[in-house]
Amino acid sequence: MMFSAKAVFTERRSGVANMVAGITGQGMALMALRSQPGWNGMLVDEIVLATPGGWTEKRLETFLLAIGASTVKVVPVDVDGRAQGESGEREARMAHPAGSNRAWMARAS
To answer: Which residues lie within the region annotated Disordered (predicted)?
Structure first.
C-alpha cells in the first residue's frame, strides 16, 4: 500500500533523519520527499511511502508522531502518487486547454 503523509517536524534535521531510519526499520520504502513552506515559517514535508501489508492511515500517523513529527496528515495514494479521489479531477484538468493551473471545474459541495 502507498501513502502520502504531510508532516511538520519541530526539529527538522533530526526529525527527517529519525523518520528515514524508522521507516527503513519497518520495511517501508521512501518513494518521495518534498518540502514546502508552511504556516509560521515551518516546513511541511510531503513523504510518499510504500508500506508492507498491515499498515493503515491511523497506524502510520501514530508511527510518524512517535518518531518526532508534531503534526501529520496521511492519505492513501495510487502508484502515481495521487490521492484516490483526485485522479479523475486531475485528468480532466490536464485535458483542458488551460492546463492544471486553472480551477475551472466546479467542486462538489
So the answer is: 82-109
| Backbone angles phi and psi of 77, in degrees to 5 | -130, 165
Give Cβ neighbours of residue 56 (< 8 Å, ≥ 6 apart).
Answer: none
DSSP 62-109: HHHHHTTEEEEEEEEE-TTS-BTTTHHHHHHHHHSTT-TTS--SPPP-
| The CATH number of domain 3-99, selected from 1.20.1200.10, 3.20.20.70, 2.60.120.200, 3.30.70.260 | 3.30.70.260
Give the model confidence (pLDDT) of 2-26 as tens digits: 999 999 988 888 888 999 999 999 9
Number of helices (H) and strands (E), helices first, in the chain? 3, 4
